[in-house]
Specification:
The chain is of the alpha+beta class. It contains 20 helices and eleven strands. A hairpin with a 5-residue loop joins strand 4 and strand 5. The two termini are 45 Å apart. The structure holds flavin-adenine dinucleotide.
Length: 597
């Protein structure tokens, strides 16, 4: 039995047109002016159809079949139907949706690419990992590639003829990229010979395309130790020269694929580079900066993966809660004509459903808001506006990545719980979402690494520049609606918690001066705290936007009631995180390592 999926077009449209007012934004962003509502609706509807009709039916079979590796050819076969779906994806022009037009893409803004990605990932997350990595490679080539590299590599990737990968991880080097050992020796022709083994490489090998372009972190012979000695290289599976001519097979091979908990249709490859020809991209020893271009894109995309899984699991759990009859409502029968009431009447089932709904819709507004920041950063004509978007985006990226993926773990588990034992067995498809969701808090930087990025880099090292901008934006929103009676139930607590956020940040900063371990001790709680406040802002904005819109009364009421639930039942989680932060590092570090057990 396959699970159901309908792309949430109404909520995406609401977030785009009403909450974020993207029409106004696009009207003033160069090369977005022509993007009217009709055009955006057409893209969203087509993406919905493709995801529902082509990708969703392959989700469960992809999970049960997984990928297979042939030792003799070092080839990987993806599950049945995956390759054909990719051909349809490319024919439909989806591969280069947001890639630059000059390189065969369609040049659409990321704000529109984001919901398309969400639909794809809801329909089939494992399949969605193949184009995901191409998207990051396009970004890296666009921003730091030389002209010939863009011509030779970006174009075929944007056209979907080739795909991209991101090769960072080695057996001894995961979160700490400073430890990586892969070597790059200069060749006489200006290329480099890359030698080393990368592990866990998503889409490192597959049967979708002939060529695969690996973006590989490696060390030059004169590299200083640590992260300051890492450079980035383009290493194609089939060699490509400066004229873009395709040559013989390069010395890079898949050595094995991993057996893993979920995401089974996505090939997770061990990649062996044995003097493979590679081209330096960006400056020597500045590979980490170059890689961050890719990683930031990918981090937002992984946040959307979390959102996508939460949405699909929720849709099915909601349907089940309406149909499954068990016990009577405590306040008396709600369906007296039936042998029992549907699950949805029970208090804790409603809590589980509303938790999912409020995290999903709030998370969607936050994720799409991040999309608008990407577009402003890339396209705005005003330098100050671009800079502001960049600072805000860099601050919000770890929050989007970590919160939406941690929410996915919570939401998919709640969805499974609503199915009871029928969720735990494979038949209903819910356990697949729990398994698939699990990786999203690990790859592209674990939640802990996102938390350190947020508190250590974005707050401490950059003096909270992004937080300051975000707090100002929330304050302006609160001021704008200060006299709006019907919004007071949200504005007052939002104003209170944003002030608390600023105070809390300062108090951590003060403690960290005397003891740097305070940062690591506070980081994860601080990330959740920040995320829940950010969602509160987007919920308050959503109610304001719904009230001001011409949406139907039911829609407006649903937004208000979900926001009310969020403020009543989810936002108070900030109290626990704040209290944990305030206890400081002492309780974590007092215990000698030897006494752990
Ligand atoms: C299915 C899958 C696909 C992947 N795809 C790719 C890919 O395409 N390309 C690629 O390069 N890699 C990929 N990875 C690798 C992935 O990015 C790493 O697994 C991840 O970055 C974590 O590294 P690690 O597994 O070595 O864990 P470690 O870095 O060893 O971390 C172990 C634990 O310690 C925690 N930790 C580490 N340092 C700190 C710290 N300073 N403070 C607090 N906690 C800390 C971590 O959060 C984690 O919980 C993939 C992995 C999987 C499983």
């Amino acid at each position: 039995m396959t699970t159901h999926y309908t792309a949430p077009l109404a909520d995406v449209r609401f977030a785009l047109y009403d909450v974020l007012e993207v029409e106004k934004l696009f009207a003033r962003l160069p090369s977005c002016e022509a993007l009217n509502r009709e055009l955006m609706d057409a893209v969203l509807e087509e993406a919905a159809k493709f995801s529902q009709a082509v990708l969703a039916p392959l989700n469960q079979t992809g999970d049960s079949q997984g990928c297979t590796f042939d030792k003799n050819t070092a080839g990987v076969t993806t599950p049945e139907g995956f390759k054909h779906a990719y051909e349809q994806f490319v024919e439909g022009g989806w591969a280069g949706l947001t890639a630059p037009e000059a390189f065969g893409g369609q040049g659409l803004p990321e704000t529109i690419g984001a919901p398309v990605k969400e639909f794809i990932d809801s329909a089939n997350l494992a399949w969605g990992t193949y184009p995901l990595l191409s998207h990051g490679a396009i970004e890296a080539l666009r921003v730091i590639g030389e002209d010939w590299q863009r011509e030779a590599f970006l174009k075929p990737i944007a056209e979907g003829r080739w795909t991209g990968t991101m090769c960072l991880t080695e057996a001894h080097c995961g979160s700490d990229l400073g430890l990586l050992k892969t070597r790059a020796e200069p060749n006489p022709d200006g290329s480099y010979a890359i030698t080393g083994t990368k592990i866990f490489i998503t889409a490192g090998e597959h049967d979708f395309t002939d060529n695969i372009v690996h973006l590989v972190l490696a060390r030059l012979p004169d590299a200083p130790p640590g992260v300051k000695g890492i450079s980035l290289f383009i290493v194609p599976k089939l060699k490509v020269d400066r004229e873009g001519k395709i040559g013989e097979r390069n010395a890079v091979r898949c050595g094995a694929i991993e057996h893993k908990m979920g995401l089974k249709g996505s090939a997770t490859c061990v990649m062996k580079f044995d003097g493979a020809q590679g081209w330096l991209i960006g400056e020597p020893h500045r590979g980490l900066n170059a890689m961050f271009v890719m990683m930031n894109t990918a981090r937002l995309a992984v946040g959307l993966q979390g959102l996508a899984l939460s949405e699909r699991a929720y849709q099915n759990a909601l349907g089940y809660a309406r149909e499954r009859l068990q016990m009577r409502a405590l306040s008396g029968a709600k369906s007296p004509d039936k042998p029992a009431d549907p699950l949805i009447v029970h208090g804790d089932v409603r809590r589980m459903l509303l938790t999912q709904k409020s995290l999903i819709e709030g998370g969607r507004a936050l994720g799409l808001y991040a999309g608008t920041l990407v577009d402003i950063q890339h396209r705005a004509t005003d330098e100050a506006e671009r800079k502001r978007a960049e600072t805000l985006l860099s601050f919000l990226t770890p929050i989007v990545k970590a919160l939406l993926t941690e929410n996915a773990i919570e939401c998919t588990n709640l969805a499974l719980q609503i199915y009871g034992g029928h969720g735990y067995i494979a038949e209903h498809g819910m356990e697949q979402y729990v398994r698939d969701a699990r990786i999203t808090t690990i790859y592209e930087g674990t939640t802990q690494i996102q938390a350190l990025d947020l508190l250590g880099r974005k707050i401490m090292q950059q003096q909270g520049a992004g937080l300051k901008l975000f707090l100002e934006e929330i304050a302006a929103f609160c001021a704008q609606h200060a006299s709006n009676e019907s919004l007071q139930e949200f504005i007052a607590p939002l104003a209170r918690v944003t002030k608390e956020w600023a105070d809390l940040t300062q108090s951590i900063g003060k403690r960290a001066v005397g003891n740097a371990d305070e940062i690591g001790a506070a980081a994860a709680d601080y990330l959740f705290y920040s995320g829940y406040v950010a969602l509160a802002y987007f919920w308050a904005r959503s109610v304001a936007a719904a009230d001001a819109s011409s949406r139907k009364a039911d829609f407006k009421q649903a937004k208000r009631l979900t926001a009310r639930f969020y403020f009543a039942r989810i936002l108070p989680r900030t109290n626990v995180h704040r209290m944990a932060i305030e206890t400081g590092a002492e309780s974590l570090f007092a215990m000698p390592d030897a006494l752990f057990g």
